[in-house]
Structures are given as structure tokens and as C-alpha cells.
Specification:
Pfam families: DUF2398. This is TIGR02678 family protein. InterPro entries: CHP02678 (IPR013494). The protein has 406 residues and is of the alpha+beta class. The protein is 48% helix and 12% strand. The strands form 4 sheets. The protein has a 4-stranded antiparallel sheet. A 3-stranded antiparallel sheet has the order 1-3-2. Strands 4-6-5 form a 3-stranded antiparallel sheet. β2 and β3 form a beta hairpin. The longest helix has 19 residues. It is globular, with a radius of gyration of 24 Å.
């Protein structure tokens, strides 16, 4: 269980710090349950009105609080590859996850059932839709097992006895006894009309009150509100958004309203904003927090920090050695990128993990480029060019040697 942090200072300062902590928890967890984290659940309930109003007005998020859990319904401002479920391998996993929820919605609270009953019901239902699932196929069972594992992680499915991984390996020779949770019906976002009635992805990601058939009212500034909500969603959810990644109207809003945006993000989320040449960037100043931050705990982040420091040292000696584009992105050839990694491995490889030491320069480059892309710090463009975004070049990593510390 996470413990609630105790904050010094006066009443107003303490209340604001509690509000920020509750907001961060809502943003970074699927939900907060009374059973698992009663202190945070009480904290959210005590600040319910302020949290509900701020998230609705600024981001178009709905806050749901029941007697047993609190959930913030988050909507992407812009779809990103890292918003996927990392353990899922393809569309079948997502489909079986959704049909798992379909099955659970028909179960009563704490009702027990067998895995064999669940998979047979899903298979029969899909057969009625002319979709064939064959549980004798290992790949189909493996997809179902991944979906079931995610349902368990979300606490909407409780395993009383057995493991779905055994069923995935052996098929009908194994079974699992499950227990249903009433939270299953709250996992997927609810829409005011049938999904087939929507004609574009923009409609699907709009907040619920913008999906209603009422016409836009100029007096309420609904168009401005929609734009503002989308901007806040991107600033809250994405690690970096550069000026050139905003549509024209949104970019003008960010540039003209930056002081207000910075104030709002600081007051509610404790994120510090600063205007740079490439855009409005937000950072988290505390060493602890609910969100995932860059650099991550993964070794790839350490190597990227080291890479950024090395490129900065190269540029200090020869400022014009690498080309830049009109957005200020640094352009390296793939050969230059791999060459720098090879030199870093030669100098510092003893401090790297065995997996990173043994990778070829090409495979290591692929891994680090994927990490860059995930954090919107760079990408590979075409076959021969690696593009490093300006935010990446604001990092500077090096190893702290013992003699330096002394």
C-alpha cells in the first residue's frame, strides 16, 4: 500500500499539496480502490469537488467515485504508440480483453466461475458473429491468457485457484477458479451513443459532453473550450510536445496563454513549466511521484543520457559538425549514431549490462532509437538519418568517477 505523504506548512499549503498528490494518483493509476489504498481513496473523496471541476473544465476528464473506488476517465489528446498495453501482442489480445469484460459484466459481485466456462461462452458468442476461435490452438490460448492477466492486474478479475498460464500451455488439462468484481463495467469508457454511429477518431476521443448532439454555443466558447481541453490532455499525458507538433490554432493558444497554462499545471499537478525555443516544456522537480519519468529505471535511459552528454561534448568542440533542420532538430547519419555508440561502449562498456555490451552497434542503436521515440526525444527518419529532438539535447549524462568525487 502506498502511504500518504505528510506535508509541513500552513493549512492552505497542506491542502494544496494533498490536492496535487490526489490528482497525480488519479492520473497515473487505472483507479484507486478503498480496499487497496484506503488513505488515498479518502484523500480523493475529501477533494472530490475541486478535482472533478478542474479535470472536467481543463481536460474534459470525468471523475467517477463510488463507495469502493475512484477513477478518472482519461482521454488521449493525441494517440501515441506507447499508449498501448505493453504485454499485448496484437489485435486478438485486445479483442479478447474486451470480450472478457463483456463476460464479467454479466457476473454478480464475488460470483465464482471457471475459466473453461468463460472461454466457452466467449467462443460461442463469437461463433454467432461468424468469428472462429479455436482453443486447441496455442496462439489463441496465449492471447486469452494475456488478456486474463491484464484483467487480473486491473483487479476486475480475481483468481481464487489456478493460473491461466498453465491453461495456455496445456489447454483443457488445466482450469482456473475465478471471482468477478463489479468494477468490470467501469473499465471501458462509456459513450452516449452506439460506437457505429461515430464517423471519425476525433469524435471518439472528444469528452462526453462534446459528444452530445447539442450545437456549439458561441456564448460559452465551446470551440475554445474543446481546444483548451485537448491542449491540457496533451500537456498532461505526453512527455514533450514541441511547437511544430501542435496544429496552428493550438500552437497560438499555447504561445499566447503560456503563463496561465504554467500556473494551472503548477497549482494542480505540481509540474514546473518553462518556455524554450522549441516549445513549452514541463518537468517534475520531486524525486518521488506517481508518474513515470525520464530518465526511467531502464538501462536504455542511462545510455541515452550518456549519449546526450557525448554529443554535447562533440558539439562543444565542433559546433557545426551535425546538420540541423528548421525545427532545431539535430540530424545524424545512422553511421554517425552507431559510431558514437561504439566509442561509448569501448570507453564505458564495463559499466553496462551484459545484454547491452553483447549487442551489435546496429541492434543497440535500434533499441535506443525506440526509447527515444517513446519519450518523443528523437526518431529514425528513413533508412540513413537519426533525428534528435531539442529536448533530448537538454540532458547531459556522464559517469561520476571516484577521483572526481574526492
Amino acid at each position: 500500500m502506498r502511504r500518504i505523504r505528510k506535508f509541513p506548512g500552513g493549512t492552505q499549503e497542506r491542502l494544496r499539496a494533498e490536492l496535487q498528490q490526489a490528482a497525480q494518483a488519479l492520473l497515473n493509476r487505472p483507479w484507486i480502490t478503498k480496499r487497496k489504498d484506503p488513505e488515498m481513496f479518502v484523500l480523493v473523496k475529501s477533494h472530490y469537488e475541486k478535482l472533478r471541476d478542474w479535470f472536467h473544465d481543463h481536460a474534459g476528464f470525468s471523475l467517477i467515485v463510488t463507495r469502493s473506488f475512484a477513477k478518472l476517465e482519461k482521454i488521449p489528446g493525441s494517440w501515441q504508440p506507447w499508449m498501448r498495453i505493453e504485454t499485448f501482442h496484437g489485435p486478438r489480445d485486445y479483442a479478447l480483453f474486451a470480450y472478457g469484460l463483456w463476460y464479467l459484466e454479466g457476473r454478480g459481485e464475488a460470483e465464482q466461475f471457471l475459466l473453461s466456462e468463460m472461454v466457452d461462452a466467449i467462443r460461442d458468442h463469437l461463433l454467432s458473429l461468424d468469428v472462429n476461435l479455436d482453443w486447441t490452438l496455442y496462439e489463441h490460448r496465449l492471447s486469452m491468457a494475456r488478456a486474463l492477466k491484464k484483467l487480473r492486474e486491473l483487479e476486475v478479475l480475481v483468481a481464487v485457484e489456478g493460473e491461466e498460464s498453465d491453461w495456455a500451455r496445456e489447454g483443457g488439462n488445466h482450469n482456473v477458479l475465478y471471482e468477478a468484481s463489479p468494477m468490470a463495467r467501469y473499465v471501458l469508457r462509456r459513450f452516449p451513443k452506439d460506437l457505429t454511429a461515430y464517423e471519425s477518431m476525433e469524435e471518439l476521443i472528444a469528452p462526453a459532453d462534446q459528444l452530445l448532439p447539442a450545437a456549439a454555443d458561441p456564448a460559452t466558447g465551446s470551440d475554445v473550450q474543446a481546444r483548451r481541453q485537448k491542449i491540457f490532455r496533451r500537456l498532461i499525458q505526453e512527455p514533450v510536445v514541441y511547437d511544430w507538433q501542435w496544429p496552428d490554432e493550438e500552437r497560438r493558444y499555447v504561445q499566447t496563454q503560456r503563463s496561465w497554462l504554467i500556473e494551472q499545471m503548477r497549482n494542480m499537478l505540481n509540474l514546473e513549466g518553462r518556455r524554450f525555443r522549441e516549445g513549452l516544456l514541463f518537468t517534475w522537480t520531486d524525486v518521488t511521484g506517481e508518474m513515470e519519468l525520464f530518465p526511467t529505471l531502464a538501462g536504455e535511459s542511462d545510455l541515452l543520457m550518456l549519449l546526450a552528454g557525448e554529443i554535447r561534448r562533440i558539439l562543444h568542440k565542433n559546433p557545426g559538425i551535425f546538420e540541423k533542420d528548421e525545427q532545431g532538430n539535430l540530424l545524424l547519419t545512422r553511421a554517425e549514431f552507431e559510431g558514437i555508440l561504439s566509442r561509448l561502449k569501448e570507453y564505458h562498456g564495463d559499466y553496462w549490462s551484459k545484454g547491452h555490451r553483447e549487442k551489435t552497434s546496429s541492434l543497440l542503436a535500434d533499441e535506443l532509437i525506440a526509447h527515444l521515440r517513446e519519450w518523443n526525444l528523437g526518431m529514425q527518419e528513413g533508412v540513413h538519418t537519426v533525428k534528435l529532438y531539442p529536448a533530448f539535447m537538454r540532458w547531459n549524462g556522464t559517469y561520476g568517477w571516484k577521483e572526481q568525487a574526492e
